[in-house]
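Record type: monomer structure entry
Structure origin: computed from sequence
Chain ID: A
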Amino acid sequence: MKEDRAQLKELIQNSDNIVFFGGAGVSTESGIPDFRSVDGLYNQEYDYPPETILSHSFFQRKPQEFYRFYKNKMICLSAKPNNAHKALARLEQLGKLKAVITQNIDGLHQMAGSKNVLELHGSVHRNYCQRCKKLYDADFILSAKEIPTCECGGRIKPDVVLYEEGLDQHIISEAVRYINQAQVLIIGGTSLNVYPAAGLIDYYKKDKLVLINKDATPMDQRANLLISGKIGEVLSEFT
């Protein structure tokens, strides 16, 4: 264990082109539940499964039920950045970290101070009218009764990627570019089971792939350095 962390420390010290790719495990330390953990959303009882509620077609058909779930379970404005978010922001400030690529929609990386954050699945902090495109923040969504509606009468949609929707191609292209050019790629807090996001690591062709996770992933054997542990605890040792 000590040897693994010493190796990670050396990689960080000797690199000025690090890219971080993270998932729900980065934010669970801030109290935000993921989908697949023991206490996650998939293990709670609802009238519909979360993956059904969080689909484009369900949003179109049953917006009131969508928003009841979305406001209760997907928006957590009381959450604060944890040690992982703070460590990554410090690495960026030191000129070592070039980009954070995240599957999370909570905005905690930006709250911690990270500037170059590529949000693969969007953000709860951005919401737009489907008719006139006016933007609204998360507070507006939370305070709205039932279905959030624009002053023009249009329905407001969160700027998050729902099931059945494609990822933003510009963000995907930027993520591919950063991963391809990275000297060190650190992956943390993700099961690497969610595609197409997980497939992005195929664009990393060098030999400094670091995987930090509490549980095993399908990509463990591809890692050049594999560390088992909480991402916040591990990264905070080196920043």
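Annotation 1: The chain is about 35% helix and 20% strand.
Annotation 2: The chain has a mean pLDDT of 92.
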